[in-house]
Amino acid sequence: MKYILPIIVSAAFLFSCSDSFLDKKPLDKLSEKDVYSNEALLEAYVNSFYTVLPDPFTEGNIACITDEAFFRYGGTSTGYITRGLMTPDNVMYIKEGGSAHNTRTTFLNIWNSTYSYIRNMNEFLSKIDDLTVLSEVKKNQLKGETLFLRAWAYTNLVQRYGGVPLITKLYGIQDNFGIKRDSFDDCIDFILSDLDEAKDLLPDKANDLGRIGRDACLALESRITLIAASPLFNDPSSPTGGITKGTYNANKWIRALNAAKAIVDRADQSGAYSLGTYDEYWTNVNCKEVIWGKFFSTTSGSKAQLYYAPEYFNGWTSCEPCEALIMDYEMAATGMKFFEAGSGYNPAQPWAGRDPRFYKTIIYPDCIFRDSVYNNHIYYNETGSTVLKRGRFWRNESDDTGYNLKKWHRTNATISENENTTIMFPWFRLAEFYLNYAEAAYMTGDEDICRTYINKVRSRPDVMMPEVRDAGKALFDRLVNERRIELAFEPFRYFDLRRWKLAPFYENIPMMGIGVLEFPDGTIKYRVVEVANDNAKESYGSTWKYNSEYTYTYNWKGTAYKIDFGSCKSMMGIQKAFSDKDYLMPIPRNEITKSEGSIEQNPYYQ
Questions:
Q1: Is residue 250 part of a domain?
Q2: Within 272-408, where are the H helices?
Q3: Assign residue 408 a region: left if phi > 0, alpha if psi is -120 to 50, beta otherwise?
């Protein structure tokens, strides 16, 4: 059978510096003979593999299924996940016969699309060694890239599902081959084997922005070995391995340490990568922190600039930060949480004096955004019984939490449905690997290295947060918080909380936002409220109840702090619910059906 090869090099994939890489003519469908006899078509075919994982700049951002943010239109994309209601049926997209929105949160359910790419990669790898149309240099490049991208595909599958079927043979599209899931450890070994082979074929850095080099292989090796060493998959209390987790081995942390050290040494010893300002990795295509990124053209569709900008500025307001995240930004002068005694917090100015990364990440009441004061106050009469008006940035249902997302925003660029001005998403950047190294060092008993590399991240030239000096459990808490702040609104929090097995606490925190009440005498009161359900939405001001109190007990560094936010309105909130079944995703029902039952479903979803 001769296969028809779809070669789609979309504008979203185009990279912005090399004419030889950028200016590929979009192709339709060509025969196998056409593709494998033409170097340019073969390169275009491999280019298409780079989209095996959709970038996370979707309207229903993955942050909205964590304790980071809320998406007001998330009923079939984020809402049911935060409520702990995932099933093998509702994770399937509408186009597959399920109920999940077709284009939102496509970063989570990737099973079907990823295996389609893996099939094409396997076909390419089965033929490349015998091709005479390619020079040896080009053959090594394309083979190395494909091996990396297959490892990348399997890494993202394993992170979501545990052990998955390892497909290396080329099957016909309609073949029913009764595949089974491989063990978690076998999947990790396979990924590492592909990366080892790819490293031998690629230069340290690719010549074109967005292409794979050996350094990207080192980075992925660090990420996957950290995942494999973590408690969810390497549990000393349940040491027997299988499909959903590996066999416990403390040496997996040493493997993770060595993998992180390899990419960290590339930065620290050769100067290949370095930390600049916090916003540089989304504003500068030549940012020296980025090891591998996805670069966008102006015609690559609606991206972060449109999706996450406030509605007042013609954005879609589709990722609203929650109070749980705001609480975790430390005070810049002391490095303490605002509720800790001696932190320097001023209740009259609740967002003053925070970690500088806060101001590059969050749009908060009364800040300056795009040369405007962000006033989303609710103005009451003297008794607080009647809403007189709302601030100019109060946009009714689009202001659920009182905060908006500034990270990924380029203030001087257009917010438009017709032109994309988001330039890049960094798949791998140096700060992640400093923190990977810190975590693996902590888990192998070297707290000095852990503190050193946390502090490297905190000492960016525009951040300069106080040094971390903690030890023991408190040091691990600081590491958890540092990843939360540094990597906010990148696709880490969802997976970090699960691999650490901390999700039962954090993912059951109510979704909260802030209300700013202003009275005729100029008095301002700040009230934390629960965010309204999609189907029971109320504005803060309409039925505010002053006779109820909202308190929240927050655990930090082993101490329980009871935070009294004062009187608030108790709304019909998003009922967040995390249980053991939510550690792994369900395999979509249609995939189980297509395998005729040979693929085993994850626990609790059978």
A1: no
A2: 280-283, 304-307, 323-326, 356-361
A3: left
Question: Is 25 a residue whose pLDDT tops 60?
Answer: no
Q: What is the extent of the structural domain holding 370?
A: 310-409+509-568
Q: What is the DSSP letter of 575?
A: -
C-alpha dihedral, 91 to 93 to 99 to 103, nearest 10° = 110
Can you tell me the distance from the alpha carbon of 156 to that of 521, in angstroms, rounded to the nearest whole number? Answer: 55
Element (H, E) at 380: strand 378-380
pTM score above 0.85:
yes
Nearest to 159 by CA among 119, 191, 133, 135: 191
Residue 164 in domain: no
CA-wise closest residue to 21 among 217, 207, 291: 207
Beta bridge partners of 291: none
How many angstroms separate the CA atoms of 380 and 393, rounded? 16
pLDDT of residue 173: 52
Spacing of C-alpha 601 from chain mean position: 25
User: Could you tell me which residues come within 8 angstroms of residue 101 by beta carbon, excluding any fewer than 6 positions away?
Assistant: 60, 76, 77, 93, 94
- Please say whether the beta carbons of 360 and 352 come within 8 A: no
Tell me the helices (H) and strands (E) count for the chain, helix number first: 19, 16
What are the φ/ψ torsions at residue 574 (nearest 5 degrees)? -65, 115
Helix runs in 365-502, H state only: 430-443, 447-458, 472-486, 493-499
CB-CB contact of 599 with 161 (8 Å) = no
Backbone angles phi, psi at 361, to 5 degrees: -115, -35
Q: Looking at the chain, how many residues does it have? A: 606
Cβ(7)–Cβ(48) under 8 Å?
yes
Band of residue 7 on the pLDDT scale cut at 50, 70, 90:
very low
Look at residue 527 in the predicted model and tell me its pLDDT: 77
Rounded CA separation 113/117 (Å): 7
Q: How many domains does the chain have?
A: 1
Q: Dig out the tokens for 425 from the structure.
A: 């998403």
- Residue 37 forms part of a structural domain: no
Torsions phi, psi for 306 (to 5 deg): -85, -50
Residue 545 lies in a domain: yes
